[in-house]
Write a structure and sequence with these properties.
Layout (H helix, E strand, L loop, with lengths): L1 H27 L2 H13 L2 H7 L6 H11 L1 H20 L3 H33 L4 H62 L1
Helix pairs in contact: 1-6, 1-7, 2-3, 2-4, 4-5, 4-7, 5-7, 6-7
Length: about 190
Amino acid sequence: MYPLLLCSLISLTIIIERIMFWIKEEKSRDRKLLDELMSLIEKGQFEEAKKITLNTRDFIIRVMVCGAVHRDFSLRDALQMSADEEIARMKRYLPVLDTMITLSPLLGILGTVTGIIYSFNMLGTVGAEHPQMITIGIAQALITTAFGLTIAIFSLIPYNYFLSKIEKATLEMEKYGTNLEILFEKKKNRDIS
């Protein structure tokens, strides 16, 4: 039961930390500044765009600024690199939570198996004349499986929620990144004409 208790504490800690992370991310979103940034980039005012977004906490704005700053070298690679950094930040601790989801039921089953082994050993010692001792041992052994499954079930729901948030954020970064690429292609085509 102690390893299962540790798994539950780790899962709970990660879930609370990730909830706080996403609340902070939602509060730091600045759609007005993002629209202003895209407008300045479209006009070719890159220094002004960089200046107004200097201390932003909006992850999409950070990705767009990185692309705009490195536009002459490799816009696509700069956008990809910056987006990868943001996604890695969003996925922080999720592999540990995934491990707890997988490990908890396995530890529960291990506890059940060892409990049943103990009960059968007791059966050999006390004999069949005291079946309540064996059934109590088996019932106690099954508690670990139930506890392990409970940890996994209640961790899986937030885990999938966090993955859906990351997927949504990734799609939004891709959308604005594509818009930025289109803006630079239009500008390049105008300069050629």
